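Weekly sync, protein design subgroup
Attendees: M.S., D.O., the rotation student, P.L. (late)

Item 1: inverse folding check
M.S. brought a backbone from last month's batch and wanted to see whether the design step gives back something sensible before we order anything. D.O. pointed out we never logged the input encoding, so this time it goes straight into the notes. Structure tokens as presented (235 positions):
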């Protein structure tokens, strides 16, 4: 699901570059899947949770280095939250890491987050998943100042989502039609999502029961005992 969706973002590359990029993405996913299976055999689920954090950290470092280059034009900034009204597909291991992180928060903060999660889930259950942006339903973890309340454990989709034009994002938010120019900026972001897809594939191969789908629904299953929706909301 993750890889096929991101393959569309390669359409602007010339055919040879797109082919080489796609081969690299597939190779990374396969290598990560094998590494995850080996990690599972040694350390079980805790090992996979640790691997997820390692992949996030490595991806963050690679993306940060890319963003420092003069030819990398990115409009995103702290407090810019136009994209925080989109559905966020999430891998099962990611959902578990986020749930564990929230569980370690002070009780008052944890209770507030769970209340917001339940409220957002209630809103999402009343609409077609594809209509969310039009209904202006924000992420349950979006703070009043436009920052992310789970930033240290935000999903790979959020970590790799960058835009080259804030005005396009604002227009997309206002019209309900997200701009095509808002997506992975370079190989580093594709690599992170490829590795994440490989980790998810390993979980499927190992038949590990994990909550997947849209961010809120996956966390609702883990933290609020919500059943999985027939519409996973990731579209």
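Designed sequence read out in the meeting:
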């Amino acid at each position: 699901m993750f890889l096929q969706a991101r393959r569309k973002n390669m359409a602007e590359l010339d055919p040879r570059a797109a082919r080489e990029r796609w081969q690299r993405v597939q190779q990374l996913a396969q290598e990560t899947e094998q590494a995850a299976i080996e990690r599972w055999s040694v350390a079980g689920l805790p090992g996979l949770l640790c691997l997820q954090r390692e992949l996030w950290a490595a991806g963050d470092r690679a993306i940060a280095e890319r963003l420092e280059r003069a030819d990398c034009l990115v409009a995103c900034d702290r407090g810019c939250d136009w994209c925080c009204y989109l559905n966020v597909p999430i891998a099962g291991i990611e959902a578990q890491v986020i749930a564990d992180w929230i569980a370690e928060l002070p009780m008052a903060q944890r209770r507030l987050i769970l209340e917001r999660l339940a409220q957002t889930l209630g809103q999402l259950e009343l609409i077609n998943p594809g209509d969310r942006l039009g209904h202006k339903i924000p992420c349950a973890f979006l703070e009043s100042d436009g920052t992310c309340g789970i930033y240290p454990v935000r999903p790979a989709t959020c970590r790799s989502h960058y835009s080259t034009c804030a005005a396009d994002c604002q227009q997309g938010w206002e019209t309900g039609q997200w701009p095509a120019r808002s997506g992975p900026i370079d190989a580093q972001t594709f690599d992170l999502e490829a590795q994440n897809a490989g980790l998810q594939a390993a979980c499927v191969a190992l038949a590990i029961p994990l909550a997947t789908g849209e961010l809120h629904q996956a966390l609702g299953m883990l933290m609020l005992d919500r059943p999985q929706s027939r519409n996973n909301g990731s579209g």
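Discussion: The first helix runs from residue 2 to 7. The chain has one domain: 2-223.
Action: P.L. to compare against the previous round before Friday.
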